[in-house]
Amino acid sequence: MAFKTQNADAFHWLIDMLESVEVGLVVLDLEFRVQAWNGFMENHSGITASQIHNKSLFDEFPDIPKAWLTRKVDAVAMLNTRAFTSWEQRPYLFQFRNSRPITGTEEYMYQNLTISPLSSTTGEVDKVCLLIYDVTEFASSKRALERANEQLAKLSMTDRLTGLLNRGTWENLVDAEFERYRRYGHATALVMFDIDHFKPVNDTYGHLAGDEVIRHTAQVTRNGVRQSDSAGRYGGEEFGIILPETDAENARVICERIRETIEQSTVNTTAGDIRYTISMGVAQLTDEPENYMQWMQKADEALYKAKESGRNKVVIGE
Length: 318
Known about the structure:
- This protein is α+β, with helices and mostly antiparallel strands.
- 46% of the residues lie in helices and 22% in strands.
- β9 and β10 form a beta hairpin.
């Protein structure tokens, strides 16, 4: 009699633990009818164990990926072995709202899932147990870290003042475009340009106003190029643009649009309104340059000719 009492007490403790543990526990038969549903599942779903007992999980939760879960459960039952899925593979099985204030930025609860086989007295698997772990805090922290790392990576590639590619990143793309041309021979053009008479702008209006002019140049450039183009700040008041799949004449059209927009613009600064122009040099890539630096030199030479011949113009290199 004492033995039966001990068993009853142990069973009571087990049930109490399953009801209070901060892990979701669901037992399903192989037809996906719910056989057990603990307190965690009641609290987060709003459905009691008695309400869902013997009902189809997919009928009650149509958002659950039926084909995916069926494959998982079938494999667990057939092989009589556990399966595990992390939130990184599938963010959640049950679309529960995230209710933790610490991780309130996440809309839904991130979940890890373990599926375990349950055998009958004959040794055959006739049910499976789903354990649902709330990993929202961990997932949220990891996602925040990943976003921060992505931002750092982006910052390491961009110029802080303008948001364009910085010199190192842009020059690497010039090199990559040069190698692409050598392999495929597609037309491609390189543009180097700078702000005319920039030193007098700084001397007259101050460096903060000069920065506004540089930022304005970057914004006009960004708006004037295509998605496939790559614009960068080469240094100081000098910029560059890579124009893939573009010959010299089409490059001229793009450059003239940028040049004219800047010529017609006024930059409003606290030190006064500033009008300015740019000079641009274009070099369509040919078989002559032996490396990307010689290609850049061709664009630089065209830029020099633009400045020598009066500035505020686009010159195509020979």
